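Thread amino acids onto this structure.
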């Protein structure tokens, strides 16, 4: 089966695995979408996530074959890198300009992000990270789009920022969730969706597994974060969205669900968020 992957970086997949590999991935999703259409089912979705205002133009080209609109979604965001944090105001202006250009060209943007706080790499001050993050939340709210949130070693500040936005009606997805069950509950209580990546399968990830088992079905998503976070037994090797199947198998076992049942649930949640 081909499964919904709620977060991947497709140009990076091509860089790591080659353009032919990415073509193969997209062909698999195209075939799955065509099969689902014939059978009257919703196809699995694949979201290509943005990290820089300048990356959107090239990624829009992925949408060129019209048939890909059945399964492929694009987000546009600004990751807290040193370059993007040098001037949050300029980065946010560039992001909004890129989104406007894409929409004028007839390409729908499904979400803002990924953007958020990274206190592990810490490539800029907390103040600059917060400014960049809050600006993207404001843009998402203004455009009526969901926000894909990156949060690493920054739980308290992330929760404080997203709680008000989510309660005000902004759809928020905590991507590649990296905390425990208590933190998951806090995000859920604020109205957020939670997505788990291939690190769910890693040794020592008991806290992640506990959290995944406890997330309500209607708030759960699964992803690869490809080419990163390849699930076991291929940890450390570049991956693609086709590797998400092993994360589904692990999550289904944790939750006492069938893989096909879980796939249907996650696809429905992805469509709720991304259309």
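Threaded sequence (275 positions):
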């Amino acid at each position: 089966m081909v499964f919904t992957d709620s977060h991947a970086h497709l140009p990076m997949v091509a860089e790591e695995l080659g353009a032919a590999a990415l073509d193969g991935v997209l062909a698999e999703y195209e075939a799955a979408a065509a099969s689902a259409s014939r059978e009257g089912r919703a196809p699995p979705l694949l979201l290509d996530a943005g990290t820089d205002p300048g990356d959107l133009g090239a990624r829009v080209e992925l949408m060129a074959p019209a048939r890909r609109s059945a399964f492929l979604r694009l987000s546009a965001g600004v990751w807290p890198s040193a370059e993007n944090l040098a001037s949050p105001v300029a980065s946010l202006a560039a992001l909004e300009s890129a989104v406007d250009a894409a929409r004028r060209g007839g390409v729908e943007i499904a979400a803002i992000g990924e953007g958020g706080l990274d206190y592990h790499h810490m490539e800029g001050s907390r103040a600059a990270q917060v400014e960049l993050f809050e600006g993207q939340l404001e843009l998402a709210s203004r455009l009526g789009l969901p926000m894909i949130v990156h949060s690493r070693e920054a739980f308290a500040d992330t929760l404080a920022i997203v709680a008000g936005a989510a309660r005000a009606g902004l759809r928020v997805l905590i991507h590649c969730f990296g905390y425990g069950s208590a933190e998951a509950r806090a995000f859920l209580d604020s109205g957020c969706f939670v997505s788990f990546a291939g690190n769910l399968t890693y040794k020592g990830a008991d806290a992640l597994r506990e959290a995944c088992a406890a997330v309500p079905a209607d708030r759960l998503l699964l992803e690869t974060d490809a080419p990163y976070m390849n699930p076991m037994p291929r940890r450390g090797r570049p991956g693609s969205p086709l590797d998400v199947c092993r994360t589904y198998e692990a999550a289904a076992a944790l939750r006492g669900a069938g893989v096909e049942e879980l796939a249907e649930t996650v696809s429905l949640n992805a469509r709720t968020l991304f259309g």
